[in-house]
Specification:
The complex is a heterodimer of chains A (110) and B (144). With 110 residues, chain A is of the alpha/beta class. Chain A is built from four helices and six strands, in the order ββαββαβαβα. Chain A has a single domain (2-103), classed as Transcription Regulator spoIIAA (2-Layer Sandwich). Chain A has helices at residues 25-37, 55-70, 82-90, 103-107; strands at residues 2-8, 11-20, 42-46, 50-53, 74-78, 99-100. In chain A, strand 2 (11-20), helix 1 and strand 3 (42-46) form a beta-alpha-beta unit. In chain A, helix 1 (25-37) packs parallel to helix 2 (55-70). Chain B is an alpha+beta fold. Classes of the chains: A alpha/beta (110), B alpha+beta (144). At the A-B interface, helix 2 and helix 3 of A face helix 1, helix 2 and helix 3 of B.
Chain lengths: 110, 144
Amino acid sequence: MELTEQEIGTCVTLAPVGKFNLVSAPPVKARIDALVAGGKVKIVVDLGGVDFIDSSGLGALIGGLKAARQHGGDVRIACAGEQVRAVLKLTNLDRILSPYPTVEEALHDW
Amino acid sequence: MTGDGAADKVYVLEGFAVPEQLDSVHALLAQAAADHPHLDPMDVMLFETAVIEIANNVVEHGRPEGEVRWKFTVRVHPGQIEAELDDTGQSFTFDDRRAMPDEDAEGGRGLALAEAVLDQIEFERMPDANHWRMVRRLGQHRQD
């Protein structure tokens, strides 16, 4: 899976592309952990390029969110497609990972 | 294939239950959806979510690792879409009606998610294989 990264001020955006699944979730989680360890704790995951997420992808986002919050930051998600939003709702994760419509809106108060 | 010809078509995938084969499972379901353009994309998407979660379960827990073979059979019926999965992995105890894990859990959602979007999920231990049957009724527009 392609994973592009961009620094915007003190924040970092990560944009995975393709299926966020059993195969691609571990490297995304590892990248979030590395960012947090390096002091980059405000992370926006741009899901605009993700056409499918499974429970492994959800686990990576939750793991990343917990790591970031432990260090005073957060993980926010943006541009989630229909399948991602449906799965977040079904798993009740929309309560702690509320999707922002755009990356700009996710970054607005950071 | 279009029209009436697609109605009875059976979509089959056989291979090893390894991570690299998950894309083929997606492709199988995409082919079934393409042949049945009347299907609601939401039905296809949620059914695909469930099938992939069951496939993930076999990939992650099937033993001996990397040697488990599987066979998917997908059928589109007038009122429902159905997939059967046979895998040669070890015996598995299927505990249905799983509760969705707490929000901060990093795992354990797969089967609960599959159950949430399926109308039927059946598991049977055969002499040398595990047999799964997954059904979603069409056109309910549920958000569960």
